[in-house]
């Protein structure tokens, strides 16, 4: 079929100029979970070469990247009362947290830039972070960074976790902290989504480390720096940092990483981490931990399979392995004393028979942990017994839902890769009455022996679904009838009974929505004034198949901590060994592998506005043009708005504009919030796979986007933070 | 041979190439379409493949009927497209864009085919 496809494509070379989307799948940098007793460990009987180390073996050299001593533990009563933080009620000019405020709604009250004048927006400056692949290095870069802004400074991080303070008006670097993260510590992706601004409750104003930047690293350190000077805070941990690999047990560099800004809630800084997907059943733990934000001392852990033990493991012990990890940005709630943790899957995403009941209760869920104890107060599950990698990539957004009687309910918006959006009561975790959740029948019990699927799955029936109807054969696409025919055959060869088609061993199955969403880590923007939600999402099915262990070995799949592991042995996104289970996994986009074009018809990415009061879609548009996409990865140069896969969220402003990049056409654009029309755009020096932000300094509004690119989205990598403003004569 | 002149020689070669192209489509449609039908998919490709294969062979042979068969396949494809996807532009692109380019080539080559078709008996009687 390969020859046929290529020949046909050559024949129809003239049709290449027609807009065709290059099938680029978004990058989710997921991760896997993990616990377990060593008795449960089963070596591969077929070939000892494919045996990962025993889960009880010691950590490899370099895993404790800075060779830091063990962190002491303190009681919650020793954590001082937290002073009010900048991010709780920020000045309109500021953007002091990843999603701007503690609500993480990506809404700015700035209004200098409007649909009327946005056409005159120009680059104010470009700042270079200095982090991109060196010659000869594999491209694992996707910075995904959103700077924060407090006062007259931006604070940001490079893809390898150097921390910088930048003059927000000029782009001049004020200080830079070199974090020394090594290439080997990059997991699936070198990403740093942002840093956290924290004001100390014990260090007086004017003293070093009164205001701090708290940052996490790919090599699992938590650092605190003086916001003024960039010097490490001596009062935090050991010389300003702590080792988060303590208690994790056996691991190698790059297996476990942090890519999100850790939230501080009532004086507790909470950390989660990604664990590389697809490696082994007994991957390192997905434990969530709380530390004193003042001293870095350990306060609590939430370890899924040891739910009653909130302490650090004794020397030689480790947190339970294989448990669901959490790699998305978390949201804090000072009033309720909660941290909202979006969870992923237990390790070995596509096979669930070896998961504990405790894991099944909290995977692919939103878990509200009490920040004083680390104990769950409530759990809301978005997928039961997930074997589709529908882990939650989005950060939740807090808002107050206006009830009919004039009262307000503290609520949150929970986006998912399924395109289901759940609206929950923050105090109880229950869906708001206006947004009921129905358990609907799902394909079960499935075909894999001893691994039955859930008979039902939850649907948020009142909130508009971000997705299209189930795929039909006639939805198959291509440049010509011949590649369309190829995709039709591929469609018919696979198992597919709609959403939640269970995993198959003897033939491929279609996973739709794909693991890139729906909504991924870009999350949603919410305008609390108008009650309008802005959501961008993907329409990119996947083509999956389980393979037995002998076949997995033949494919050379092995876990990242296997002594024989090489970069061709499988990674987080594609094929995975899933060692210590009966099966490996083969995953590709549902595409024509010879042209690199998706098999389903466009659009592949959308953006829409939803009124949360009326639950109506105000407008819905394809997001992204064909200019940088085409068959065989060739750019067509066409401005046709085909709708590309996208990664990265949006900003909504009081000026009536939405700023979003995300799409694979490497553009940032401004969209008129009322109409959904693109009213301004600019071509970036790299892929805009990051959440933009906006701020004001000296009376001028700026819009910033990290054009870091994304290796998996196949967009150009750059180290440029591009910042826009109106010329002086416009405003 | 001198009677036929250069223009018709070019026309002859062009129609043979065009016929080969249509035949190629036809054969791929037949092969792929058989696999698709066996998997429970659409029968369009087999049916269209039969017509295209015949069209390709006849066009190579210089028969005007080859062109008419291609027109038939194209018209059928248009109706099938409307049946499958209505008037969705993205749905029309793979189904009709390439075939329409070939349709234009077929229409352009009609005079040459007509000439070949009318002289055909002469050649045969001369042999």
From TrEMBL, chain A:
<dbReference type="InterPro" id="IPR002372">
    <property type="entry name" value="PQQ_rpt_dom"/>
</dbReference>
<keyword id="KW-0560">Oxidoreductase</keyword>
<dbReference type="GO" id="GO:0008876">
    <property type="term" value="F:quinoprotein glucose dehydrogenase activity"/>
</dbReference>
<comment type="similarity">
    <text>Belongs to the bacterial PQQ dehydrogenase family.</text>
</comment>
<dbReference type="InterPro" id="IPR018391">
    <property type="entry name" value="PQQ_b-propeller_rpt"/>
</dbReference>
<dbReference type="GO" id="GO:0016020">
    <property type="term" value="C:membrane"/>
</dbReference>
<keyword id="KW-0732">Signal</keyword>
<dbReference type="GO" id="GO:0048038">
    <property type="term" value="F:quinone binding"/>
</dbReference>
<feature type="signal peptide">
    <location>
        <begin position="1"/>
        <end position="23"/>
    </location>
</feature>
<feature type="domain" description="Pyrrolo-quinoline quinone repeat">
    <location>
        <begin position="95"/>
        <end position="703"/>
    </location>
</feature>
<dbReference type="InterPro" id="IPR011047">
    <property type="entry name" value="Quinoprotein_ADH-like_sf"/>
</dbReference>
<protein>
    <submittedName>
        <fullName>Pyrroloquinoline quinone-dependent dehydrogenase</fullName>
    </submittedName>
</protein>
<dbReference type="InterPro" id="IPR017511">
    <property type="entry name" value="PQQ_mDH"/>
</dbReference>
<feature type="region of interest" description="Disordered">
    <location>
        <begin position="30"/>
        <end position="74"/>
    </location>
</feature>
<feature type="region of interest" description="Disordered">
    <location>
        <begin position="433"/>
        <end position="456"/>
    </location>
</feature>
<dbReference type="Pfam" id="PF01011">
    <property type="entry name" value="PQQ"/>
</dbReference>
From TrEMBL, chain B:
<protein>
    <submittedName>
        <fullName>Glycerol dehydrogenase</fullName>
    </submittedName>
</protein>
<keyword id="KW-0812">Transmembrane</keyword>
<keyword id="KW-0472">Membrane</keyword>
<feature type="transmembrane region" description="Helical">
    <location>
        <begin position="92"/>
        <end position="113"/>
    </location>
</feature>
<keyword id="KW-1133">Transmembrane helix</keyword>
<feature type="transmembrane region" description="Helical">
    <location>
        <begin position="43"/>
        <end position="60"/>
    </location>
</feature>
<feature type="transmembrane region" description="Helical">
    <location>
        <begin position="12"/>
        <end position="31"/>
    </location>
</feature>
<feature type="transmembrane region" description="Helical">
    <location>
        <begin position="67"/>
        <end position="86"/>
    </location>
</feature>
